[in-house]
Amino acid sequence: MPDLSQLLQLGQQMQVKLTQMQSDLSQRTVTGTAGGGMVKATVDGRGRIRALEIDPGAATGDREMLEDLVLAAITDAQRRAEDIYRDELKKATGGLPLPFQLPL
């Protein structure tokens, strides 16, 4: 059975890995689309919006439809970022479940 100092050292190593993972995720970007690519939202690996592109053809239509497309593109990008986050978290923790949810 590991002693307390080994557990503390393991915890510190995990903290360093998780801090590095969060830093790396903030540098990565993911793009989500809606309307067949008429609207593109780019977020970082933590889900924060970094860019939004709207095809000029989409802006000439119905305003409510455009708003829905923007929301759908952002949701798609954030979902993709969350998937990357979960994959990276599994790598960092060796697949062990954490007793708490880490913030993005």
Produce the secondary structure layout.
Elements: H1 4-27, E1 29-34, E2 39-44, E3 49-54, H2 56-59, H3 63-93
Helix pairs in contact: 1-3
What does this entry look like structurally?
This protein is α+β, with helices and mostly antiparallel strands and 104 residues long. It has one domain: 2-Layer Sandwich (Ybab, Chain: A). Helix content is 57%, strand content 17%. The chain contains three helices and three strands; from the N terminus they run H-E-E-E-H-H. Strands 1-2-3 form a three-stranded antiparallel beta sheet. Strand 2 (39-44) and strand 3 form a beta hairpin. Helix 1 packs antiparallel against helix 3. The longest helix has 31 residues, at 63-93. It is rod-shaped and about 65 Å long. The mean pLDDT is 86.
Q: Low-confidence spans: pLDDT under 50, at least 5 residues?
A: none
Mean pLDDT: 86
Gyration radius (Cα, Å) is 19 Å
Return the CATH class.
Alpha Beta
User: Which range does the strand content fall in?
Assistant: 15-25%
- What's the overall geometry? rod-shaped
Q: How many angstroms does the end-to-end distance come to?
A: 33 Å
Beta strands, count:
3
Placed side by side, the strands forming the largest sheet appear as 1-2-3
Q: Give the number of domains.
A: 1
User: CATH homologous superfamily - what is it?
Assistant: Nucleoid-associated protein YbaB-like domain
Order of helices and strands: HEEEHH
